Amino acid sequence: MSDHGPGGLAAGGGAPAQAGAGRPPDVPGGPHGGSRGVPGGATVAEARRGQMLRAALDVICERGFADTRIADIAERIGISPALVIYYFKTKDQLLTEAIRHYEDAWYAEVRRRLDELPTAALRLEEFVAMNLLPDGDPELASNWLLWLDFWVQAARNPDVASVRRKSDERWRDVIVSLVVAGQEAGEFAGIDPQRFAIFLSALLDGLTVQIALEDPVVDPVSAFELCMRYIADNLRFDWNPSGRAHVTGTPVRGQPGR
Amino acid sequence: MSDHGPGGLAAGGGAPAQAGAGRPPDVPGGPHGGSRGVPGGATVAEARRGQMLRAALDVICERGFADTRIADIAERIGISPALVIYYFKTKDQLLTEAIRHYEDAWYAEVRRRLDELPTAALRLEEFVAMNLLPDGDPELASNWLLWLDFWVQAARNPDVASVRRKSDERWRDVIVSLVVAGQEAGEFAGIDPQRFAIFLSALLDGLTVQIALEDPVVDPVSAFELCMRYIADNLRFDWNPSGRAHVTGTPVRGQPGR
DNA sequence: ATTTCTAGACTGAACATTCAGTCAGGACTC
DNA sequence: GAGTCCTGACTGAATGTTCAGTCTAGAAAT
User: Among A23, A82, B49, B68, which residue's Cβ finds the most Cβ atoms within 10 Å?
Assistant: First the structure.
């Protein structure tokens, strides 16, 4: 995004491989892993792609999106920069896809974890925790800075922008469905889920900024508690910092929003 | 921030002019405008500085911090790129100072406007409006994207980071003092101002992100209303979207924060 | 008043570097 | 031996920075 000519944004989404010279391995543009030539399945090419995507993410976190060079990524894996271009036609493509990849992985992990929890309150809590608390999983590691760069890119790169728009949408959808589920189960008060989702997602974004920038007065834990306090108060369920969420004894329902 | 070698961050704050060759005009590093040589005052040099700072801000908004070239800034004013670094030793210095300059101007404007309003509620409302609503003043124009870039830079540039930390601090201080003033005047409920400030500033940041990225479901006006609704509900004062803030007839005070 | 001097403001033309992307070909595998 | 995977060496373009010198206006000298 910082190279040649004005508006150096990559062409539209899944522009396939080049025409002449090269011999590109695998076209992105979708989850289909066309293992050409080699029978059996994914193989090297796909592994490499993932490796590069992951490395790209790492580097972006360290140097920032704008200062990430393909040489950094190559070096990290111990390959030549040329190979990076061999897999991803352009730098933009790689970085853009890396972000998309991260977003996808993150979202998938959210779903996975939430599905394992029994109550809406617990799910909501886990959701918030995944947003604000450091995570064990190295794949999704607490890359808060990534989100900031993500936003900045989305501001000018239409491709990234659409990823981010979709991201935010399912984001809020998750919240809405959690709230609705909780309300139907009698766990939560009957506030407007849509409104709540917008509010909460903005709040989470804002807290993410503070945390990412290591604000002296907003560490992850206190941000988490602040956020959960708000949620519990508004949805009217019992919650205390030390433990995990508890469903209130007496189900509330149909209560007017605040 | 994207040039030579690793860690290409500018040296500490007010590194003065070079030693040998040139004859640099005016050293930054503080609000002192040392109008050397020419008696009377500021003069050309200072005007130029301001001009460049403003141009830099414009360009940053358009192209993004990372893609801003000194040539862009020079071109906009109709001068040679060389003159830009004649005034600011390095690109980094210019951009960093531009952000600092903007932040200062913005904060000053906030103070100016708030001072003119009679009630704490109105002041709070104006404060929120300045954060979320498009502004007439071209100097401070609605440069939401600027904040995103600001954050991203703060993440890696210690110099910018300290600006941003200070920024956020006085930010919250404004909120706290507004709340306290309102509480003392009996306009607001007696919640914890500090906590409220942290919450509100995060919320504002988050909404800023959504607005800056032109989220389809969070336009400035609805963000503003969402935010004001929260504030009014929490501080317990009367507020309705169409008009301006009104102090509640019966002063509330000392009420427990939810 | 004219000339001389000087310093600050400014620029065009290099310079130096960085970096994405190309290319010709090598190794490895089926 | 054909295709896949991979690399070292290179190039072209962009761009921050330097530099030598111009231009202007006021100060000092005449």
Answer: B68
The CA distance from A86 to A95, in Å, is 14
User: Is strand D less than 7 A from the beta carbon of B97?
Assistant: no
Query: Could you tell me which residues come within 8 angstroms of residue A167 by beta carbon, excluding any fewer than 6 positions away?
Result: A103, A107
Nucleotides on chain D that have an atom closer than 7 A to a protein CB are 3-9, 13-20
Chosen CATH of B117-258 out of 1.10.357.10, 1.10.10.10, 1.10.260.40, 2.60.40.3080 = 1.10.357.10
Residue B142 has pLDDT above 70, yes or no: yes
Residue A247 pLDDT? 57
Confidence class for position B1, pLDDT limits 50, 70, 90: very low
Q: Does B207 touch chain A (CB under 8 A)?
A: yes
- What is the spatial distance between Cα A250 and Cα B136, in angstroms, rounded to a whole number? 51
> CATH number for the A26-89 domain, one of 1.10.10.10, 3.40.50.720, 1.10.10.60, 2.60.40.10?
1.10.10.60
Give the residue from B257, B200, B237, B175 showing the smallest Cα distance to A199.
B200
More confident call, A43 vs B230: B230
pLDDT tens track for A75-117: 999 999 999 999 999 999 999 999 999 999 999 999 999 999 9
Q: Given this model, what pLDDT does residue B245 score?
A: 54
Provide the CATH number for the domain formed by B1-10+24-98 in this structure.
1.10.10.60
The rounded distance, in Å, linking the Cα atoms of B236 and B247 is: 9
Interface check A206 vs B, CB under 8 A: yes
Contact state of A168 with B215 under an 8 Å Cβ cutoff: yes
Q: Which residue of A has its CA nearest to B257?
A: A233
Q: Measure CB to CB from residue A156 to each of B64, B151, B209 and give the nearest one.
A: B64
- Contact list in B for residue A217 (CB cut-off 8 A) is 172, 198
Q: Which of A67, A206, A216 sits opposite B202 (nearest CB)?
A: A206
